[in-house]
Amino acid sequence: MKYALYGISCCGKDTLIENLLASGKFSGFIHPEGSKSLNTMAQHAFGKNFKEISAQEKDAIRIEYAQKLSKEKNLFADGHYCFPTENGYEVVFTEADGQCYDSFLYLRAKPELVKERLNQSEKNKRLAHLTTAQIDDWQEQEISELRDICFTLNKDFIVLDADFDSVLKFLEWYDSNYEIVNGYRQASRLAELCRIHAQCNTSSAGTNKIALFDCDRTIIAEDTGALYFKENGEDLTPVRELFDGDIYSMYQFEKYGELSRFPRFPATSNYHMNTVVMEKIAELRKDGYLIVGITSGIGEIWRDNNRKKNFADWIIASDRNLGFTICDFTKGFLAKILAQDNHVVACGDSLADIYMLQAASQGILYAPGKIRGSVQEYLDRHPDTSIRQFAANPIQYKNIEAV
User: Fold this and answer.
1) Mean pLDDT for each 10-residue chunk of the chain (403 residues)?
2) What is the distance between the alpha carbons of residues 230 and 216, in angstroms, rounded to a whole number?
3) H or E element: which one contains 59?
4) How many Cβ atoms are within 10 Å of 286's Cβ, its own excluded?
5) pTM, two decimal places
6) C-alpha angle 47-53-59 in degrees, rounded to nearest 5
7) Which 3 state secondary structure label does DSSP give 255?
8) Shortest CA distance to 347 belongs to which of 225, 204, 218?
9) Half-sphere exposure (CA, 13 Å, Cβ side) for 141?
10) Residue 157: phi, psi to the nearest 5?
């Protein structure tokens, strides 16, 4: 397996890779010395160090380096997506990088810690002037653009944090079960199950119409996970920290699964259906769509709610035993695969749903009582989006049409 670990300067990429290899869990993996290799290749091709050659020459060397790495079998390679300049960002990521690696990891670090390290780094002294706000912007720029690229390439983009024990546990599981648990493979298996359900369901049999509805804050007004924690007297702070910055990759939801194992479930009377969404579900069901509720939350809660309120024909939820972790890319890949031979309507409310909405035949955004800043930022960066929103909802996003 070839893993790319991206992140801004001084975020700790080299240290993380060295610690992963030192753990003994990744026998046979190598950590290529990127900077040294680029310099050697530049000297050979142009008689200069890498930093001294032109931008065009640098891209040629980067492409050659990525092609060289693509011949390796198992590796963790660290990389940069872009660097801040006076006028924005200089992107150093190439198409060859996108093709080289099987999965992309991103090490997200606290800007204050990066700032401290930059101030002490001779190698990165040209970046020491950056403020913590600029460092944060740089990091978010890389995450947003790499996430889009990886989704287009059907490759996982997984954001990691500084919790080494959790990162090690996750990556050992992910690597050992890659053929089952990588996002596109998960989505392919779920797509086949959707087709089977569509054929077996009396109201949708013989049609190629499937509707994917996010659950928390979309079908139901409340966040069922938050109520689940409160019902068991648990502090929600670790959950808020885990999803800080609206990061919803596979790592976050695997870690969330470890946090959310409690005996008591809130009564279904605590939940209230979102009228405009339920009206859409009724309309689609009448038109012969298979209605699928897809949740990154607690599957037991949603299956119980559905048994009592019958808003979906089938509930998709994370299931570690079956190798399903419902995250942003699982949802997005599922809609993308189904839309190849079905008319897919998708509905959701957050950045965890945005790729599902974008990939569907018709994606409808729901605003649950307020505008989500991260969602509006995505819409602003994608003015050509096909995503629409409910005209009947009093809360409206900017720059997208209503239906």
Assistant:
1) 98 97 97 87 90 90 91 95 95 95 98 97 93 98 98 98 97 97 98 92 78 97 95 96 97 95 91 96 96 96 95 96 96 98 97 98 96 97 97 96 96
2) 16
3) helix 55-69
4) 9
5) 0.96
6) 115
7) helix
8) 218
9) 18
10) -125, 115
